[in-house]
């Protein structure tokens, strides 16, 4: 086989790539959906905005900050009981999806809030002057006008999740991170290590290029 | 059509309260174009934002289309706002939508059926002279075109009132004129009531029927535009107009002016004359010169035309003995000419 690796190893690498993609995709979709909702909530409840709720805004802000402060490796271990409750196990791919999602939600929320902040307040005021409801302001003005920033936020999130998923490999999640650690790092197989890193680089590059292309398409 | 009564808007609490509006009373007649003019920070923007409650007044009443807006529920207010269009200094178009989709937005908000929207949008594109622009994006348009899109969008829901917040302030003079012509046209064709705020005298002169001067959060004078410029009642308005029309005393004359107090012998009065309409076309100066046998030296003069009114402004030195010049001053004052003695300069002999 190529690069002196056995067929079994290549099969393992193929399966691991697939596992990583599934972990990133599932946790990505869930964290992006919940994160966007949370980001919108942070945006609209600010005291100078159209659904002002200063107390709720402050509480959401603190929760998000706590979520973002806990290092991922600690979060993963800390929520093991919760993970078990949810998926019935604390190792394997579906067990890794839980901490990945929870770690990414506050991250997405702040990125989303940031890109909504970039929308000119004049546009919100204009929509209000037309008699738009808060839901109409969000869906017809805020989100479409912020979509370049939102796509960038999604891109950054997916790439961060690839990195996190590799870290999750250290505690038995499977995927490319696990192969890299178990075969490459522990058994000094630098070829396996190099191949896993190469695959991750290609994934990151592909997501970044896709994201950039989509952002360019939103510009007129 | 729009009635503001004792509208007060303050920010902050206790000792830190800042009042942007200190009791505004304003009546904008249906079908008219009314202007509120004032310097930066006078409260213009706050005033126009109080009309559709983008800013909620601290106290006072806002009646538009016969409806007291301050007592409406959130849903009621949204309903009322469909009948009040607004355009802004920076156009506020959605960059993510085409011109046509921008104009369609207010109609989407009211869940208008698609075919109706399409028909209405094409009608508005024609009205605002944007027939070929429907599929472009705002970033591909000039400032004047963007404001036309904003006007079309504001008219989409067939409002009875259009509010203009410094709508021409970001445009060059030529584009300003074309936007003002468009506003005048829709005012006449659709019978739309327009309230505009501006710091540009030219805007008021060009299209307003009625004008109010705002200073320090108060309306100091409201008058028909002809009267406002030719014979304002308030000192503030006179001051503002001479400031804006820049009929200041020339520096060379300022140096020659004698200190205040009783004018010494052989000094000549310098007067500022403001005369309106038919007085402008009369050979007033040569007539006075002949009748009273004095010389009149014109230091500065110009004629302003404001829609169908004309306004003559002049600074002149009356060269003659004290008795005669006093007679001239009395005579001019009796002629319905605004006369102000600026000071005296030393005579040449």
Can you describe what's shown?
The complex is a heterodimer of chains A (220) and B (349). With 220 residues, chain A is an all-alpha fold. Chain A has a single domain, classed as MetI-like fold (Orthogonal Bundle), CATH 1.10.3720.10. Chain A is 80% helix and 0% strand. Chain A has helices spanning 7-44, 54-69, 72-78, 80-87, 93-117, 121-129, 134-145, 147-168, 176-185, 190-218. In chain A, α5 (93-117) packs antiparallel against α8 (147-168). In chain A, 40% of the residues are buried. By secondary structure, chain B is α/β, with parallel strands linked by helices. Chain B folds into 2 domains: 2-244, 3-Layer(aba) Sandwich (Rossmann fold); 256-346, Alpha-Beta Plaits. Helix content of chain B is 36%, strand content 30%. Chain B has helices spanning 44-51, 74-81, 99-109, 114-127, 143-155, 173-190, 201-207, 225-230, 235-244, 251-256, 278-281, 284-292, 322-334; strands at residues 2-11, 18-28, 33-37, 59-64, 67-68, 84-87, 161-165, 193-198, 210-215, 218-224, 267-276, 295-306, 309-319, 338-346. In chain B, the strands form 3 sheets. Chain B has a 6-stranded mixed beta sheet with strand order 6-7-8-3-9-10, with helices on both faces. Chain B has a 4-stranded antiparallel beta sheet with strand order 2-1-4-5, with helices on one face. A 4-stranded antiparallel beta sheet of chain B has the order 12-13-11-14. In chain B, α3 (99-109) runs parallel beside α5 (143-155) and α4 (114-127) crosses α5 (143-155). The longest helix of chain B is centred in the middle third of the chain and has 18 residues, at 173-190. The N and C termini of chain B lie far apart (62 Å). The mean pLDDT of chain B is 90. The chains are: A mainly alpha (220), B alpha/beta (349).
């Amino acid at each position: 086989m190529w690069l002196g690796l056995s067929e079994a190893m290549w099969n393992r690498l193929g399966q691991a790539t697939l596992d990583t993609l599934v972990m990133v995709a599932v946790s990505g979709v869930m964290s992006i959906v919940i994160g966007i909702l949370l980001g919108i909530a942070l945006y609209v409840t600010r005291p100078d905005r159209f659904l002002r709720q200063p107390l709720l805004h402050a509480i959401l802000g603190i929760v998000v900050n706590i979520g973002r402060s806990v290092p991922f490796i600690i979060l993963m271990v800390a929520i093991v009981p919760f993970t078990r409750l949810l998926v019935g196990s604390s190792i394997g791919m579906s067990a890794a999806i839980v901490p990945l999602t929870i770690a990414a939600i506050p991250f997405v929320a702040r990125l989303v809030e940031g890109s909504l902040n970039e929308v000119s307040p004049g546009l919100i005021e204009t929509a209000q002057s037309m008699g738009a409801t808060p839901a109409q302001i969000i869906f017809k003005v805020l989100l479409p006008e912020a979509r370049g920033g939102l796509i960038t936020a999604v891109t950054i999130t997916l790439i961060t999740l690839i990195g996190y998923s590799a870290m999750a490999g250290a505690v038995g999640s499977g995927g490319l991170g696990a192969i890299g650690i178990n075969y490459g790092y522990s058994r000094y197989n630098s070829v396996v290590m190099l191949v896993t890193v190469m695959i991750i680089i290609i994934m990151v590059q592909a997501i970044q290029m896709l994201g950039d292309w989509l952002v360019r398409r939103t510009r007129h | 059509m729009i009635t503001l009564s004792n509208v007060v808007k303050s920010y902050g609490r206790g000792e830190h309260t800042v009042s942007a509006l200190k009791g505004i009373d304003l009546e904008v007649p249906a079908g008219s174009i009314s202007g509120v003019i004032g310097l930066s920070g006078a409260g213009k923007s706050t005033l126009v934002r109080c009309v559709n409650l983008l800013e909620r007044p601290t106290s006072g009443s806002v009646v538009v289309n016969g409806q007291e807006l301050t007592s409406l529920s959130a849903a009621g207010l949204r309903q009322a706002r469909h009948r009040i269009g607004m355009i802004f200094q920076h156009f506020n178009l959605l960059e993510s939508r085409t011109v046509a989709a921008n104009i369609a937005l207010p109609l989407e908000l009211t869940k208008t059926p698609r075919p109706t929207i399409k028909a209405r949008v094409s009608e508005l594109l024609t009205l605002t002279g944007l027939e070929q622009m429907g599929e472009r994006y705002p970033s591909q348009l000039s400032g004047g075109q963007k404001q036309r899109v904003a006007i079309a969008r504001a008219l989409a829901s067939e409002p009875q009132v259009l509010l203009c917040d410094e709508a021409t302030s970001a445009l060059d003079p030529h584009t300003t004129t074309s936007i003002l012509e468009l506003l005048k046209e829709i005012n006449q064709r659709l019978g739309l009531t327009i309230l505009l705020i501006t710091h540009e005298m030219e805007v008021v002169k060009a299209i307003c029927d009625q004008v109010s001067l705002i200073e320090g959060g108060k309306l100091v004078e409201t008058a028909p535009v002809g009267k406002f410029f030719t014979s304002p009642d308030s000192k503030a308005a006179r001051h503002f107009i001479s400031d804006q029309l820049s009929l200041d005393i020339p520096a060379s004359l300022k140096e020659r002016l004698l200190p205040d107090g009783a004018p010494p012998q052989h000094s000549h009065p310098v007067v500022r004359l403001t005369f309106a309409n038919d007085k402008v076309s009369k050979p007033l100066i040569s007539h006075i010169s002949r009748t009273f046998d004095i010389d009149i030296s014109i230091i500065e003069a110009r004629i302003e035309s404001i829609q169908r009114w004309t306004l003559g402004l002049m600074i002149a030195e009356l060269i003659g003995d004290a008795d005669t010049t006093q007679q001239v001053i009395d005579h001019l004052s009796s002629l319905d000419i605004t006369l102000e003695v600026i000071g005296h300069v030393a005579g040449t002999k």
